[in-house]
Structure to design on (508 residues):
């Protein structure tokens, strides 16, 4: 019969119409409806009545709208009639409303014909996807179950048409975007932004961008989308977008499914950070062991080496020199062991502070007095050692032993990293704090390493510094001690110009 040929001459259409009317009474295969020019049903066949369940009086004389479903937008219905008005066949899969309120999904073809009096008529052929009438009820039931499943799914689910207009959104989607009571059907994301809290606007606009990307890629896409909520927090959705195309390749539907993965993403981030930290601490441990064996072996070798040089023939001057070197290296060993002991106390939370009234001027002077000897021993005669104290006495209730340990550490570092210029200790009162500042004109510290040097086992790692030795403990211990004293330890430095370390102690 050539039912689906696109354009027909009027006479041919008339003979087709006669054939069709005959056919429709015999046919068991298709459901058929004939509409007049104003889209009113003027004829249906028995198959239609059987499949869609309408009594004849329930459909004849009724407008096409009685068959509309909530799945399609007004513009979709509009496209049916505009295609027909051009004299073309409209062919599509769609949901039509059956009598008992369920919907039937059909292959739907409708085309214009003329009756004997040359009046325009529209003949629709409906082919339900499942034609076995025994299971129609099951299909309807399955459909309802499906709708329930989609609606109650905790993931957000949204169907859009080819132009981004919402066709359906499940409860989770409605609740997430505060669209309760909003007639969202036929509206785009940009339209909907105006119907809900302004905080969602950015997410809606971003969503349109990722929708477009998905359309252009022509394949299922997946990615995280951030949704800013009205309370200022943010959630992360793991979003799938599934584009569906018409046979001619034009855009038909976009299915959007999003799962809230906020807590999972946070856990993943924590895990990643923990992994990086674990790797870093592994690396530091190995570096520490290497440094420590070097730091232990070097002075020990010196002690053993110079001790073995002393015999009956060694003169008194040499013995004095050797014993000075032995003494020096033994003291370095002792310092290292004391540092390790302090680290273990700090790590186990057992470091004790014992506060008394102490004179800071006396403490600073004691440190100052030790170092000229060290400067001589290290042969750093180009380094001036200065003391800036304007007080006679400066009493503070604190742990004098630990304060002295911190200043000694700072001065020892200054001495280690300074070849010429000066090292100074300054004692000053600033508001409710006492500052003890150790300044040097040494190699300085790169700005990005300033925070890092206060961490345990950390050193500024560049080849040229290795020659200075050290286990990377002094500043970490000093920082911990200054915290325990209720104070603070700060560092300022400029590479190749010098450094300034300030121990701040509270007066109260
Ligand atoms: P170390 O035993 O390695 O000196 P510290 O914890 O005392 O351990 O210092 C850590 C690192 O900080 C040093 O290795 C060095 O790179 C840097 N540093 C500390 N003080 C100074 C300073 N006065 N001048 C330059 N660099 C310094």
């Amino acid at each position: 019969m050539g039912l689906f040929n696109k354009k027909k001459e009027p006479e041919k259409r008339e003979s087709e119409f006669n054939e069709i009317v005959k056919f429709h009474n015999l046919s068991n295969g298709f459901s058929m409806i004939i509409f007049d020019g104003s889209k009113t049903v003027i004829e249906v066949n028995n198959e239609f009545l059987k499949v869609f369940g309408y009594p004849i009086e329930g459909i004849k004389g009724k407008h096409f709208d009685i068959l509309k479903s909530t799945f399609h937008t007004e513009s979709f219905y509009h496209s049916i009639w505009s295609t027909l008005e051009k004299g073309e066949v409209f062919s599509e899969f769609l949901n039509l409303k059956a009598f008992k309120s369920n919907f039937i999904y059909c292959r739907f073809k409708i085309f214009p014909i003329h009756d004997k009096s040359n009046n325009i008529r529209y003949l629709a052929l409906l082919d339900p996807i499942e034609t076995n009438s025994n299971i129609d009820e099951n299909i309807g039931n399955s459909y309802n179950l499906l709708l329930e499943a989609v609606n109650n799914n905790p993931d957000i689910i949204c169907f859009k048409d080819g132009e981004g207009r919402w066709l359906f959104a499940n409860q989770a989607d409605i609740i997430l975007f505060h669209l309760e009571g909003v007639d969202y059907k036929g509206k785009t994301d940009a339209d909907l932004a105006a119907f809900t809290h302004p905080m969602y606007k950015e997410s809606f606009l971003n969503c349109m961008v990722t929708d477009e990307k998905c359309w252009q890629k022509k394949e299922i896409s997946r990615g995280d989308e951030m949704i800013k909520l009205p309370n200022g927090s943010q959630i992360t959705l793991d979003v799938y977008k599934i584009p569906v195309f018409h046979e001619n390749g034009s855009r038909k539907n976009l299915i959007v499914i999003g799962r809230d993965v906020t807590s999972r993403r946070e856990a993943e981030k924590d895990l990643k950070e923990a992994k990086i930290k674990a790797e870093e601490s592994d690396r530091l441990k190995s570096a520490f062991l290497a440094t420590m064996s070097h730091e232990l072996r070097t002075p020990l070798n010196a002690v053993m080496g110079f001790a073995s040089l002393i015999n009956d023939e060694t003169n008194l001057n040499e013995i004095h020199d050797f014993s000075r070197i032995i003494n020096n290296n033994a003291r370095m060993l002792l310092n290292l062991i004391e540092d390790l002991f302090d680290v273990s106390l700090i790590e186990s939370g057992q470091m004790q502070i014992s506060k008394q009234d102490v004179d800071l001027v006396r403490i600073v002077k004691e440190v100052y007095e030790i170092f000229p000897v060290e400067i001589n021993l290290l042969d750093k005669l180009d380094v001036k050692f200065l003391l800036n104290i304007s007080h006679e006495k400066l009493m503070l209730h604190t742990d004098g032993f630990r304060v002295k340990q911190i200043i000694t550490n700072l001065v020892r570092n200054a001495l280690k990293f300074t070849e010429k210029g000066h090292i100074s200790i300054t004692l000053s009162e600033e508001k409710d704090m006492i500052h003890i500042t150790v300044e040097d004109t040494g190699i300085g510290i790169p700005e990005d390493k300033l925070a890092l040097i206060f961490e345990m086992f950390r050193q500024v790692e560049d080849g040229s510094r290795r020659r200075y030795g050290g286990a990377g403990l002094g500043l970490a211990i000093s920082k911990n001690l200054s915290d325990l004293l209720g104070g603070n330890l700060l560092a300022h430095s400029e590479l190749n110009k010098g450094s300034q370390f300030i121990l701040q102690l509270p007066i109260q």
